[in-house]
Every structure is written in C-alpha cells, then in structure tokens.
Amino acid sequence: DAGVIQSPRHEVTEMGQEVTLRCKPISGHNSLFWYRQTMMRGLELLIYFNNNVPIDDSGMPEDRFSAKMPNASFSTLKIQPSEPRDSAVYFCASRRTSGDTYEQYFGPGTRLTVT
Amino acid sequence: KNQVEQSPQSLIILEGKNCTLQCNYTVSPFSNLRWYKQDTGRGPVSLTIMTFSENTKSNGRYTATLDADTKQSSLHITASQLSDSASYICVVSGGGGSYIPTFGRGTSLIVHP
Q1: CB B73 within 8 A of CB B90
Q2: Are B44 and A56 within 8 A, CB to CB?
Q3: Which stretches of chain B sit within 8 Å of chain A by CB?
Q4: Residue of B nearest to A4 (CA)
Q5: Do B43 and A107 touch (CB under 8 A)?
Q6: What is the distance between the alpha carbons of residues A45 and A91, in angstroms, rounded to a whole number?
Q7: Which of A43, A96, A103 is the best mutation test for B, with the most CBs of B within 10 A?
C-alpha cells in the first residue's frame, strides 16, 4: 500500500489567495483526520470524518477553513482567504474504525507558507 | 480540560546511551495512549499503543510503560542510535466513543556520535 498521499508537498502563496490541500487515505480506511502542526502549538486536530461524514470540526480555526470528503478516497482542506498565520505543516491521517485499536497512519504533510 | 504534558522538552544524549521520556496526562475517560516518532520533515509514525489494561509494551529498542492510576507514561530508548534523533510525541485518546486525541508538544531528542 502506498500509505496516505498528500499533495502538494510544499505550497507558497500570497496572503489573500485560496489554498487547497489534498489527501488520499489508505484504501479500506473509513476515518480521515486533518491536522495542523506549528512550532508554537504542536499538532492540532482540525477536523475528522467517519465514512465521509464530518464528525467533529471544532478544531477548525475559523470560517476561512473548510474541508470536504466527497468519497472514501479523497479529501480536501481549503483556506480562503489565506493569511500568514496559516503557515504550518498540514497532515492528513487515516485509520480503520475496527481491529486497529484506533491506529492512525499519517501522510508526509503539506508545508504551507503564506507570505 | 484534557491535557498531555511531556518532559523534557528537548534532550541530547550520546550514541549508545539509554534515555527515558515522560508523558503525564489528564484525559478522562481514558481509552489508549500512543507514542509516535516524527523525523524531521515527515509525518508521525506510531511506535507503541497501550490500552487501559496494558502497563508495558516494547517495539525493538523502544519500551513504553503506562500507569493508568497516576496517569503517567514513559518511553525508554535503549542503546540509542543516530537514527533515533527525532521528535517523540505522546498522544492520549479518550473513551466513551470519542475519537478525538489529545497531543503532547513532543520531546525533541538529539543523539550525538
């Protein structure tokens, strides 16, 4: 298995632009998580989906952030408009909800820089 | 409020030496505790996962312990190698059907030759 796939790996954009991050979870996994990691705050859960349905989005910082999961093999995290404080590494993770004791598998991350 | 505190924040050791990283948590109810290793520029990778009934688990040179009564966990690394240089993150998940994990800030370990 290829593991969790994220794209792009690096994104540099100007303040005010729209940014879309993409994630392909591991095949057969039915839960998907979006995280943000910064030096100041460490890893933070933004939102998670179960069977393509958003279950908890309380970690989404504000309305500029939105996430979708149109099918079991694809999810997007969109920031519109982007701001310099959104600069961080964004991770996607997936897992099965049975048998793995809730083991999550992380993607390589997308490093976002907003200037 | 659920919290996970890790110590030390950073640690420098010589290759071949042992070290122990600490994790204290206030998450309740408790479901499981995981230790992740995160290499620079990569996503976290799971080392161990323990549920309430487990008090020790090993993965090669990594041994994790859990004391659910005192809400403490430790990760012991034996005979450290240069490749052990990474950030080690403690993650605690609550029970009661909640999937939301609480992350520690991590311990940055540097192993010098």
Answers
A1: yes
A2: no
A3: 31-32, 34, 41-46, 49, 51, 89, 93, 99-101, 103-106
A4: B43
A5: yes
A6: 9
A7: A43
Per-residue model confidence as pLDDT tens digits over A25-81: 999 999 999 999 998 888 999 999 999 999 888 889 889 999 999 999 999 999 999
Torsion angle, CA of A55/B88/A9/A60, rounded to 10 degrees?
30
Residue with tokens 């079991």: A72
In order along chain B (113 residues), what is the average pLDDT of each group of 10 residues?
92 97 92 93 92 91 95 97 97 73 93 96
